[in-house]
Amino acid sequence: MAAKIRTGDTVIAIAGREFGQTGVVESVDTGTGRAVVTGLNISIRHQRQTQDQPGGRLAKNMPIDMSNLAIVDPEDHKPTRVGFRVENGKKIRYSKRTGARIDG
Question: Tens digits of per-residue pLDDT, 54-69?
């Protein structure tokens, strides 16, 4: 199955404690079906002091399940489903909400 959410996409959380918040996808793990999104699912991690880095509490983006994410429509900035179609011999993603292209 083709990847509907890819690195660099702007997504919105449609379920969970992060509901309604948006962010940009940093990485996607297709094996577990989870994605790391900037600004979503932030956890505090404690880091030991080293010669190079000071210790302390660091905020870290943790993975969130892709079923809780939806791509933001490029035209009306609302959550949308993703479809695929072929244009000029190339497979592209498009918004099912407005029909706008998601891929550059």
Answer: 889 999 999 999 999 9
d(CA 64, CA 28): 10
Q: Please tell me the distance from the alpha carbon of residue 53 to that of residue 102, in angstroms, as a whole number.
A: 40
For the chain, domains (ranges, CATH) are 10-95 (2.30.30.30)
E-strand stretches of the chain: 10-13, 22-29, 34-37, 42-47, 56-61, 63-65, 69-72, 79-80, 82-87, 90-95
Nearest to residue 72, comparing CAs of 29, 28, 21? 21
The answer, as to whether pTM is greater than 0.70, is yes
| Measured distance CA(76)–CA(8) in Å, rounded | 18
In this prediction, the residues of the chain whose per-residue pLDDT falls under 50 are none
